Amino acid sequence: MSTRLTCRLVQNLTAEAVHLAADRIPLLRDRRRAKCHVRQIAMYVCHVVLQISQGDIANAFERDRTTVRHACSVIEDRRDAADFDAFIETIERLVSSAFTAQAERGE
């Protein structure tokens, strides 16, 4: 599977998780800001869980590498809040499980 497709799948999983958690965590009211937040989480998870380089993530999301570095920094800083950390851990487990199952099937 291409890095671009992998990153898009992670972004879609993240968006679904944010949607499902909407009643438990405060979401941003501005739609553009909310999309940016989902993208930042997806970039972070791609880098941390799937070990994709920041340069490859930048290419997949059609952004600059410094944008990926900033996204990772923002998410890491926000993990100091227990609720947000638990939410990110859930997304990390979901992505890890999805891509482990895919690897086991040989895709």
TrEMBL record:
Residues 6-75 form the Chromosomal replication initiator DnaA C-terminal domain. Gene3D superfamilies: 1.10.1750.10. GO terms for biological process: DNA replication initiation; regulation of DNA replication. One of its GO terms (molecular function) is ATP binding. This is Chromosomal replication initiator DnaA C-terminal domain-containing protein.
